[in-house]
Design a protein that fits this description.
DNA-binding, alpha+beta, 10 strands, 21% strand, 4-stranded antiparallel beta sheet
Length: 268
DNA sequence: AGATCGGCCTGGACGC
DNA sequence: TGCGTCCAGGCCGATC
């Protein structure tokens, strides 16, 4: 499940290979979630940016190719030495002036679309996206204010993308464990908010350094896995002893998402 | 307007 | 072995 560190790792591998390249042809399965992608034909990709879990490629005509990997999306180049051969799960293919790039997505939760630059009216999560957690726009003070304005459980609020961009189920559980905050909490005071702010930045930065977490499906452009899975303390670790207090970690469903936490040292 | 919930989608794990 | 059921979850749209 690509979250910010995984998408950033993809961006870092993809950017040098697509920036400045011209799209000579596009093949894409006809689906609403791939709307207007074929109109990128003939355009040159100027750069590759990331906002939250979205990849955004400005084109040379004032539009942007916006990409979201969903749960199982990945990009792979043909003809490299990584052994990639297109399979039945390729949903789109970009023919570039110097190579062929496949978009593969088993579960089809991903999305590719072309919009006027900055016009995200049709992509509500991107339109309403919160600050980049590793930028100076993300401050503990503003994070606490934003948290105070919502009544949802803090875990659900973190997944909403409006308080902060790019946090998904893995890093929400990791950050809440690190900050000792109960995922059900609907009120988080300034000190605990500051601890969570710090924990979010730490878990994301550490995972980027390890090129992301491969738990099931995530793979990089070169087909390799991220190295952060071995360092997960909470996500997917239910029943294992909490490294702080030894209590077996509990699993509940919160906001429709599996949530693993320590009921002792993340007490409400 | 914000909170909540079901649907999308498919492979893999599990039970019988 | 094979079949059925459940689970994973980011986002979106409908409903409360």
């Amino acid at each position: 499940m690509p979250e910010l560190p995984e998408v950033e790792s993809v961006r870092r591998q993809l950017a040098p290979r697509v920036a400045g390249r011209t799209i000579t042809a596009v093949e894409v399965v006809p689906q609403e979630r791939f709307r207007a992608v074929e109109t990128a034909t003939g355009r040159t990709i100027e750069a590759l940016h990331r906002r939250g879990k979205y990849l955004i490629a400005p084109l040379d005509d004032g539009r942007e190719l916006v990409m979201h990997l969903g749960m199982t999306g990945s990009f792979r180049f043909r003809g490299g030495d990584d052994g990639w051969v297109p399979d039945a799960y390729v949903r789109a293919t970009f023919h570039l002036d110097d190579g062929v790039l496949d978009y593969r997505d088993v579960r089809r939760f991903g999305r590719l679309t072309v919009v006027e630059a900055g016009d995200y009216a049709g992509i509500p999560t991107l339109r309403d996206l919160g600050p980049e957690p590793l930028s100076n726009d993300f401050t503990a003070r503003a994070f606490h204010r934003a948290l105070s304005r919502t009544t949802a459980p803090v875990k659900v609020a973190l997944l909403g993308q409006r308080l902060v961009a790019g946090v998904g189920n893995i890093y929400a559980d990791e950050a809440l464990w690190r900050a000792r905050i109960n995922p059900h909490s609907r009120r988080v005071g300034p000190e605990r908010a500051a601890a969570l702010w710090q924990a979010i930045r730490e878990v994301l930065a550490e995972s980027i350094d390890r090129e992301g977490t491969t738990f099931r499906d995530y793979q990089m452009v070169n087909g390799e896995s991220g190295r952060n899975a071995d360092f997960l303390i909470a996500y997917g670790q239910e029943g294992r002893p909490c490294p702080r207090c030894g209590e077996p970690l509990s699993k509940v469903v919160l906001g429709g998402r599996g949530t693993t936490y320590c009921r002792i040292c993340q007490r409400r």
